[in-house]
Amino acid sequence: MPDDFVADSKIQQIAEAYALDAIDLATKASAGRLDWSDASIAHVETILSKLHSQAAKAKPAPEQVFQFAKAFGSYIGETFRRNHGASWGMVTLQGQSFPGLKTDGPAGLFWPWGRVQNRLINGAEDNVWHYYQALLEKSGLPVPNTPAPSKESWWRRFGR
Question: 11-145: which CATH topology?
Answer without folding.
Answer: Four Helix Bundle (Hemerythrin (Met), subunit A) (1.20.120)
